[in-house]
Specification:
This protein has 187 residues and is of the alpha+beta class. It has five helices and ten strands, in the order H-E-E-E-E-H-E-H-E-H-E-E-E-E-H.
Length: 187
């Protein structure tokens, strides 16, 4: 193909930018956060500190709930990754849906990961909610220090083309890309 060399150069640039991003993430000193309270899929209260399990690190995905087909797409993908992620860090998906609705929807999708119902205050404090736009999708990472202090270490928004959903990158490789495609709940 006539663009092979240029594509190879771009791939190398992306690799270098990802490496630089990783280095910046590693340099983060984090910010102390409170030990927020959430509700499990059964409605029981659970604290942020409990979501770590036996790990010192936690990955929390900010999901917009069952009303968002895009968030459902990401969660479907995380479902396959969740055992691998949970081997390294606590892993949980937070949803603004009420526990009963969240549980029902998760079961209908066969999601195997832990979920918690989050409120506007937590989402707002994490930069994933505002009154004008509502909830936003994203991911936050946390570290639990030996004294029990919790720090939010890094965060990123989720959206089409981000590095957290391979589907977009695969679509990029076919003629016309995603061609206006949008995720659906059933195919």
């Amino acid at each position: 193909m006539k663009h092979d060399q240029e594509l190879q150069q771009i791939a190398q640039q992306i690799f270098e930018l990802q490496k630089k991003r990783r280095e910046l993430f590693e340099q983060s000193e984090g910010e102390v956060v409170e030990n927020y309270e959430f509700r499990t899929a059964d409605g029981a209260p659970i604290h942020l500190s409990d979501l770590f399990g036996d790990k010192n690190d936690l990955i929390l995905v900010h999901n917009m709930g069952k009303e968002c087909s895009y968030c459902t797409l990401w969660a479907d993908g995380f479902n396959g990754l969740s055992p691998h992620l949970a081997d390294r860090a606590g892993f949980v998906v937070g949803s603004p849906n009420e526990p009963e609705d969240m549980k029902q929807f998760a079961e209908s999708r066969h999601w195997r990961f832990k979920m918690v119902s989050v409120d506007k205050q937590f989402a707002s404090d994490m930069g994933m909610y505002n009154e004008n736009d509502g909830f936003w999708p994203g991911v936050s990472t946390f570290k639990k220090l030996p004294d029990g202090t919790i720090k939010r270490m890094n965060w990123s928004f989720l959206g089409p083309g981000d590095p957290f959903c391979s589907l977009w990158h695969l679509f990029d490789m076919i003629p016309e890309g995603d061609n206006g495609w949008e995720p659906k709940y059933r195919y």
